[in-house]
Write a structure and sequence with these properties.
- This protein is α/β, with parallel strands linked by helices.
- It is built from 14 helices and twelve strands.
- It folds into two domains: about 5-135 and about 275-380 and about 475-485, Rossmann fold (3-Layer(aba) Sandwich), CATH 3.40.50; about 150-270, no CATH class.
- Helix content is about 35%, strand content about 15%.
- The chain has a seven-stranded mixed β-sheet, sandwiched between helices. The protein has a three-stranded antiparallel β-sheet with strand order 8-9-12, with no helix packed on it.
- Helix 8 runs antiparallel to helix 9, helix 11 runs antiparallel to helix 12 (about 295-310) and helix 12 (about 295-310) crosses helix 13 (about 345-365).
- It binds guanosine-5'-diphosphate (GDP).
- Guanosine-5'-diphosphate binds near residues 33, 35, 36, 38 and 39.
- It holds the Pfam family DUF463.
């Protein structure tokens, strides 16, 4: 449970910034998503565009010229690593390479000085908002439901999922190893380690397989952070527990104790120190990758989004409720990398995200916070054009594929600009989901052509001013996430 001091600190954080006793409002914005979803790129582009006065027509405060300046300040939490913004900008803008992805939790404070739109507020408010951006792996968030699950529940669910056709071959080696032990065997460190390693290898294989499966807990098996190699991660689910009590000294008892320790010492503190203090949240999803992989991957993504939403708005009587001191009131579920599609498909991508979100909301029995969806590119690496082929004019995207990317027999060197016909998303987006998909056809009809591009070269104006990072609909995301706090 949250202690009194925690509560006091949280209340204080809410009320104040940390600068020299000045009181001004702050907002904590969580940025999450499974690995490679685009968190690092999003935060870097978010901050870069605000600091450098980017083109943000849908971000009202910026559009109406009310933002005086935005700058980085010392973050409020000394014990949390800082988000390495400067390094990421240097990589993105200087080298035109993608920055190092998120591997653990980190934080950054961006302070915005603005003029309030209303005369009343102008008189009373400081016109300063500190945005504390908290970046953390979605894998860790997916651990929260474990808090409500016993080792027996966790084991049963892990085996049920592992036996699904889409995962069965990937989990086979681990399940076979598991079949060689019985829960009532004597506890043995080496057995525990072999099982844990084999289980972790299966979870990793799901992540890296072309089927683009979303993650299963425990999240630290995939993103260990500072727990790499620690005994807290040396456990695995066991089959055939049948609700039996573990015999002291048995493998069952050993695994159960470690599972409970993982919840107490890893999951709970993470939730209390980071998640429970958030005001707003953006969840990034790689919908494009799932679309490419087919309906089973989309269903899997939907399952992950459902679990994520359930973590943010624990309902009455939910085990998480006791741990929450603030409530998240806005959540944005955003598909990034829309710059891989022609703009005609952006609304379709958004409609797909909308459908995933709507069904997740219904299934997670989620109420309270306002949820919006977006299809965007935090950094736009392509521009659009057309090519004529057989008398037909086709819309294309033009960019510089990363070195080593391939289309057909062509391998790119990282310095060649290329036009690609990316493929369309279907007009009727329902057809990409399992229940409407053509069973003969695993992937969507219009398999997308997907290569990774190098980040863009920054343009200069006639006056020689370098513009900030280009994007698609990043301004809409900003408006939803913090716009109302700058009114
Ligand atoms: P993280 O693991 O969530 O921090 O993911 P990153 O932000 O590191 O993004 C993973 C990869 O996705 C990057 O290296 C890029 O290749 C790609 N990516 C992320 N955001 C964008 C975007 O807005 N546009 C494009 N074209 N690629 C992106």
């Amino acid at each position: 449970l949250t202690t009194f001091t925690d509560e006091a600190r949280i209340a204080f954080d809410t009320l104040s910034g940390r600068t020299a006793g000045l009181f001004f409002p702050s907002i904590r914005l969580g940025v999450t998503g499974l690995s490679r979803a685009g968190k690092t790129v999003f935060i870097t582009a978010f901050v870069h565009n605000l600091i450098h006065g980017g083109r943000l027509p849908l971000f009202e405060a910026q559009k109406s010229g009310r933002i005086a300046r935005a700058f980085l300040e010392e973050q409020p939490d000394d014990a949390v690593p800082r988000f390495q913004y400067e390094d990421h900008v240097a990589t993105l803008v200087g080298q035109r390479l993608w920055p190092q992805s998120t591997r653990a939790v980190s934080e950054l404070r961006l302070t915005i000085e603005y003029e309030s739109a209303s005369g009343w507020n102008r008189m009373f408010a400081a016109g300063r908002l500190a945005v504390d951006i908290v970046d953390y792996p979605g894998e860790w968030l997916l651990d929260l439901p474990l808090l409500g699950k016993s080792f027996t529940d966790f084991s049963r669910e892990a085996f049920d999922l592992a036996r699904l056709p889409v995962r069965a071959d990937l989990s086979q080696a681990w399940r076979e190893l598991n079949a060689t032990v019985a829960p009532d065997d004597d506890a043995d460190e080496m057995t525990a380690r072999r099982l844990a390693e084999s289980f972790a290898a299966y979870l990793l294989a799901c992540k890296h397989d072309d089927r683009a499966l979303s993650t299963l807990p425990p999240g630290r098996f995939l993103m260990p952070g500072d727990l790499e190699g620690s005994p807290a991660l040396t456990f695995a689910p066991l089959s055939d527990l049948d609700g039996r009590r573990a015999r002291p000294g048995s493998l069952h008892a050993m695994m159960e104790r470690r599972y409970d320790a993982y919840k107490t010492h890893v999951v709970k503190p993470f939730f209390r120190e980071h998640i429970a203090r958030l005001d707003r949240q953006i969840v990034l999803i790689d919908a494009m990758q799932a679309l490419n992989a087919g309906p089973a991957a989309l269903a899997d993504l939907e399952r992950a989004v459902t679990e994520i939403l359930a973590c943010f708005r624990p309902g009455r009587g939910n085990f998480l409720t006791d741990l929450v001191s603030r409530r998240i009131d806005r959540i944005l579920i955003a598909a990034t990398k829309a710059d891989h599609l022609h703009h005609e498909s952006h609304d379709r991508l958004q409609a797909i995200v909308r459908r995933i979100a709507d069904r997740a909301i219904a299934r997670a029995n989620f109420t309270g916070a306002t949820v919006d969806v977006a299809a965007m590119a935090a950094v736009r690496a392509t521009r659009e054009g057309t090519v004529k082929q057989d008398g037909e004019t086709l819309p294309v995207i033009i960019g510089m594929p990363l070195a080593g990317e391939r289309i057909g027999t062509q391998t790119f060197d990282g310095n060649t600009e290329t036009a690609i016909f990316p493929g369309d998303l279907p007009e009727d987006v329902r057809t990409v989901f399992a229940e409407n998909a053509d069973p003969e056809n695993g992937a969507t009809d219009s398999a997308l052509r997907f290569v990774r591009f190098r980040p863009p070269k920054l343009e200069r104006t006639a006056e020689g001013v370098t513009l900030s990072l280009p994007h698609i609909r990043l301004d809409r995301a900003l408006q939803f996430l913090i716009g109302d706090r700058l009114a």
